C-alpha cells in the first residue's frame, strides 16, 4: 500500500510538471477509480449491515416483550451464520464460473480471491444476510432456536445464492434473457419473503391467534410491545437502504449514485403516505404499523428499478406499494389465516413482485439495455418472479418439513406461553418489568 501511494504521488508530481505520458495519466486515474470503488462499496456494505439492527428493532417492537431477546439472538446469528456459510459456499454458488447459467462452480472459501473479490464479497454477504433475516419476523415467537440456526445457514449458503446466480451472475440464465433487478426486489426481498411464507405455513400460527368455534374463525390481534422501537427500526432500515440501492451502482465514481438515492427517497415517502391514507380510510384512523410498513413497501418496490425508473414514476411505484401492503397484510392475516407478526411476506414478497414488474412497466428500456420491447420486458420480469418463487418455496418447504420431522421447528405450547427469552435462552430482556401474557 505504501509503495502504491508513493507511485501515485510521483505520477501526480509528473503530471503537474507536464512530464507524464497519456499512459501515466490513465494509470493515475485508474488508481483513483479503484480507490473510490473500494471506499464506496465498503461503506455501502456497512450501511446494509446496519439494516440487521433495523430488522431486529422492527421485529422486537412488533412482537411481545417476552420474546425480545430471542429476536435479537436470531438477527445476530442470521448474519453470523450467514457470513460463514456465504464465505464457504454461497459466494462460489452465486458468482463462481457458471454451469449452464444455473449455478457457480468455483471460488469456494474465496479461493484465489484478490482485493477486488474481497471487496465484492463483503458487499454481497450483507445482501445474503438480509434475505435470511426477513424470515425471522414471519416466524417470530414460536420457532426453536436450534432449527432457526440451521435454516439461516442453508438460506445464505444455498437457497439465496442459486437464484442470485440466475439473475446477478454474468452468465445466469435470467440475466441472458434480459431480466433486470438492480438492487434486489426479487433477488433479495422476494427470496426472504417466500422462505418466510413457507416457514409460517409449516410452523403454524401462534397460540391464541386464530380461534375456531364451529365453522367460524376469530382472528385475534396480538399487539407488539414497543411501537417506538419498531419505528426506530424502520428509520434505520431506510437509512441502510441508501447503501442497499445506491451502493448497487458498484462504483464510487458512478454519477448515478445521487439519482438512485433520489428515487429511493421518493418511493419510500410515497409508500408511507399511501399506506397511511389507506389505513386511515379502511380503519378510520391512520395506523402507525401500517404506515411504517408502507415506507418499507415503497423501498422494496423501487429496489429493482431504482436506476431505470424516473423520479416522477418512483412516486407512483412507491405509492402503489404502500397501498398493496395494507391490503396484503389484511388478506394474509384475516382471510388466509397465515400468522406473520410483522407483515414480512407482504412487505418483501407481494411488494417485491410489484416492484419487479414495475421495471417492465415503467423502466427506461434504453437504460435496461436488454433489447426487449415493453411487452417483452414485462414478460421476462414475470418469468423471473415465477422462477424464483418456485425455487424458494420448493426448497424452503422441504427444509422446514425436514426440521419439523426432526423436532427442530416449533417450541412446545408451554415454552411459547412462557416466552422464548426464558425457555430458549434462560434470560429476560426486561428484568424487573412485568411482561407476562396469557396468549
pLDDT under 50 segments (min length 5)?
Answer: none
Helix content range of the residues, please?
over 70%
Secondary-structure-derived class: mainly alpha
The biggest sheet amounts to: 2 strands, antiparallel
- Write down the secondary-structure element order: HHHEEHHHHEEHHHHHHHHH
Proportion of residues in β-strands: under 5%
Q: How would you sum up the global shape?
A: globular
The total count of helices amounts to 16
The overall pLDDT average reads: 93
Gyration radius over CA: 23 Å
Cα(first) to Cα(last) distance is 59 Å
Strand order of the largest sheet: 1-2
The beta-strand count equals 4
Give a brief description.
The protein contains 16 helices and 4 strands. The protein is mainly α and 439 residues long. α3 crosses α4 and α3 runs parallel beside α5.
Question: How would you characterize this protein structure?
Answer:
The chain is mostly helical. The protein has helices spanning 2-16, 22-61, 68-95, 115-138, 145-168, 173-177, 185-203, 227-246, 257-283, 288-303, 311-334, 344-362, 365-368, 374-405, 413-418, 420-425; strands at residues 98-99, 103-104, 210-213, 216-219. The strands form 2 sheets. Strands 1-2 form a two-stranded antiparallel sheet. Strand 3 (210-213) and strand 4 form a beta hairpin. Helix 12 (344-362) runs antiparallel to helix 14. The longest helix is centred in the N-terminal third of the chain and has 40 residues, at 22-61.
Amino acid at each position: 500500500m505504501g509503495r502504491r501511494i508513493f507511485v501515485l504521488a510521483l505520477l501526480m508530481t509528473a503530471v503537474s510538471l507536464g512530464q507524464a505520458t497519456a499512459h501515466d495519466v490513465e494509470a493515475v486515474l485508474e488508481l483513483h477509480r479503484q480507490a473510490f470503488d473500494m471506499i464506496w462499496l465498503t461503506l455501502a456494505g456497512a450501511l446494509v449491515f446496519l439494516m440487521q439492527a433495523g430488522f431486529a428493532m422492527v421485529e422486537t417492537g412488533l412482537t411481545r416483550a417476552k420474546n425480545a431477546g430471542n429476536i435479537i439472538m436470531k438477527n445476530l446469528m442470521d448474519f453470523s451464520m450467514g457470513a460463514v456459510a456465504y464465505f464457504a459456499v454461497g459466494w462460489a454458488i452465486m458468482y463462481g464460473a457458471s454451469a449452464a447459467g444455473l449455478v457457480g462452480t468455483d471460488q469456494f472459501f474465496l479461493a484465489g480471491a484478490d482485493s477486488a473479490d474481497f471487496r465484492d464479497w463483503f458487499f454481497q454477504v450483507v445482501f445474503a444476510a438480509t434475505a435470511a433475516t426477513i424470515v425471522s419476523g414471519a416466524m417470530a415467537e414460536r420457532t426453536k432456536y436450534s432449527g432457526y440456526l440451521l435454516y439461516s445457514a442453508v438460506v445464505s449458503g444455498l437457497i439465496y445464492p442459486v437464484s442470485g446466480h440466475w439473475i446477478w451472475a454474468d452468465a445466469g440464465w435470467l440475466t441472458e434473457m434480459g431480466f433486470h433487478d438492480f438492487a434486489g426486489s426479487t433477488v433479495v426481498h422476494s427470496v426472504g419473503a417466500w422462505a418466510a411464507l413457507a416457514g409460517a405455513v409449516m410452523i403454524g400460527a401462534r397460540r391464541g391467534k386464530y380461534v375456531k368455534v364451529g365453522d367460524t374463525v376469530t382472528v385475534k390481534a396480538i399487539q407488539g410491545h414497543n411501537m417506538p422501537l419498531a419505528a426506530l427500526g424502520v428509520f434505520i432500515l431506510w437509512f441502510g437502504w441508501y447503501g442497499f440501492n445506491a451502493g448497487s451502482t458498484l462504483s464510487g465514481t458512478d454519477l448515478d449514485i445521487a439519482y438512485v438515492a433520489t428515487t429511493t427517497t421518493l418511493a419510500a415517502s410515497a409508500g408511507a403516505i399511501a399506506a397511511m391514507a389507506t389505513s386511515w380510510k379502511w380503519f378510520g384512523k391512520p395506523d402507525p404499523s401500517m404506515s411504517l410498513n408502507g415506507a418499507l413497501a415503497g423501498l422494496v418496490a423501487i429496489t429493482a428499478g431504482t436506476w431505470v425508473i424516473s423520479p416522477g414514476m418512483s412516486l407512483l411505484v412507491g405509492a402503489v406499494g404502500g397501498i398493496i401492503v395494507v391490503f396484503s397484510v389484511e388478506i394474509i392475516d384475516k382471510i388466509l389465516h397465515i400468522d406473520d407478526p410483522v407483515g414480512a411476506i407482504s412487505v418483501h414478497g407481494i411488494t417485491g413482485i410489484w416492484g419487479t414488474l414495475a421495471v417492465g412497466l415503467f423502466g427506461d428500456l434504453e437504460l435496461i439495455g436488454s433489447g426487449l420491447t415493453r411487452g417483452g420486458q414485462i414478460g421476462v420480469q414475470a418469468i423471473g418472479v415465477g422462477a424464483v418463487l418456485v425455487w424458494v418455496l420448493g426448497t424452503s418447504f422441504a427444509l422446514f418439513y425436514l426440521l419439523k420431522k426432526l423436532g427442530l421447528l416449533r417450541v412446545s405450547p408451554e415454552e411459547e406461553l412462557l416466552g422464548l427469552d426464558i425457555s430458549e435462552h434462560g434470560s429476560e430482556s426486561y428484568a424487573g418489568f412485568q411482561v407476562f401474557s396469557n396468549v
